[in-house]
Amino acid sequence: MSDTERRQLYIKGYQLDDEKIRNFVRRQPDDLEPDWPMNWHQAIINHIPRDAFLEFGVGLKPNGDPVTVLVLDKGYDRERLEQEPVTTEDEALARLADFVLTPGIWPSLWS
For a disulfide at 101, which of 14, 47, 77, 106, Cβ 3.0-4.6 Å? Predict the structure, then answer.
């Protein structure tokens, strides 16, 4: 199968949302770079039990920018993934979703 015939994999879950992190986390004196919210990704991930999601993924925003996603489901049929909202029964993940995560479905950078 050629690259042009390659099927697109979609990932469904929660994006580590840098805009929400900017609004929720107080910027520290050593957070000097414009992308300083990325410094908080590991700390956020450390508060989520590893069994609360399938895997880490990299999704693509409509503008092509990559986003880190805590993947709950994946597949080649986007319509199937869209049939149910993004939800979790894990309390830690649900709590963080309110403040620093955004649910959604993204084309996967990795096929």
Answer: 14
**Is residue 107 a contact partner of residue 49, using CB atoms and an 8 Å limit?**
no
Q: What is the pTM of this model?
A: 0.86
Over residues 46-65, the mean pLDDT reads 95
| Total Cβ atoms within 10 A of residue 23 | 11
Point out which residues pair with 106 in neighbouring strands: 11
Long-range contacts of 48-53, Cβ-Cβ distance < 8 Å, separation of 24 or more = 48/90, 48/92, 48/93, 48/96, 49/90, 49/92, 49/93, 51/90, 52/88, 52/90, 52/92, 52/93, 53/13, 53/14, 53/88, 53/93
The pLDDT score that the predictor gives to residue 18 is: 87
Report the Cα–Cα distance between both ends of the chain, in Å, rounded: 13
